[in-house]
């Protein structure tokens, strides 16, 4: 029978003009559809979004998923597919993956990410493999990868970082402190200036004698 715009008695064992299906055929699921103030029963081969099929000796029913932002679920408390924009993780739906897990965009799932250990202590301040002879250097700390990610496409956090540091000894013991190449350039410029000054002084003296 067809009552109104929907074939509400399709697949029914018993049906009411006002309430639709009351009992369904053996393999179908009973679903109570609500439209405004009206509700009526339907018999479906599979349950709609947000519901899962619950089979019982009495009658198979469509039961609502109780998980927030779930599109389809395996059972009341285990989601198999989340709504758009949400990631599936252990039967739940998340806007962002929990700590220790990475988002797999193509499947919208949270998988095991790259796990790293604790940072080591900062290393010795050095520059050009030397721990003296300079005012400033770099010190480095590292951490180990404890667990590789489930997918090679998932990057690991940085495992080494460096920062600027002040050397404990600016002058190396038992030797003269030498500046880098810039200092040599300054000495060369200073020497050239001295030579030019002496040359100009000699020209001045020669000119002075001639004028006398």
If you had to describe this structure to a student in words, what would you say it looks like?
The protein has 212 residues and is α+β, with helices and mostly antiparallel strands. The protein has 3 domains: 10-62, Hormone Receptor, Insulin-like Growth Factor Receptor 1, Chain A domain 2; 68-111, Hormone Receptor, Insulin-like Growth Factor Receptor 1, Chain A domain 2 (Ribbon), CATH 2.10.220; 114-171 and 185-209, Thrombospondin type-1 (TSP1) repeat (TSP-1 type 1 repeat), CATH 2.20.100. The chain is 15% helix and 36% strand. The chain is built from 1 helix and 16 strands. The strands form 8 sheets. Strands 1-2 form a two-stranded antiparallel ribbon. Strand 11 (101-104) and strand 12 (109-112) form a beta hairpin. The longest helix is centred in the C-terminal third of the chain and has 31 residues, at 181-211. It comes from Agelaius phoeniceus. It is found in: Secreted. Residues 114-167 form the Spondin-like TSP1 domain.
């Amino acid at each position: 029978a067809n009552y109104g715009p929907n074939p509400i008695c399709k697949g029914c064992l018993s049906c009411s003009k006002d309430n639709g299906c009351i009992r369904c055929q053996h393999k179908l699921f009973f679903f109570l559809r609500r439209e405004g103030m009206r509700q009526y029963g339907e018999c479906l081969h599979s349950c709609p979004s947000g519901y899962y099929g619950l089979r019982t000796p009495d009658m198979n029913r469509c039961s609502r998923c109780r998980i927030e932002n779930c599109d389809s679920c395996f059972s009341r408390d285990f989601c198999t597919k989340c709504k758009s924009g949400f990631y599936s993780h252990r039967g739940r739906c998340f806007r962002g993956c929990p700590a220790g897990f990475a988002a797999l965009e193509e499947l919208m799932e949270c998988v095991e990410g790259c796990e790293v250990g604790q940072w080591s202590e900062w290393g010795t301040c050095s520059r050009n493999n030397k721990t003296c002879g300079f005012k400033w250097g770099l010190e480095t700390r590292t951490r180990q990868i404890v667990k590789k990610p489930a997918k090679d496409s998932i990057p690991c956090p940085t495992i080494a970082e460096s920062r600027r540091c002040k050397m404990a000894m600016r002058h190396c013991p038992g030797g003269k402190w030498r500046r880098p190449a810039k200092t040599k350039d300054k000495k060369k410029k200073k020497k050239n200036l001295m030579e030019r000054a002496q040359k100009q002084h000699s020209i001045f003296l020669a000119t002075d004698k001639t004028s006398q």
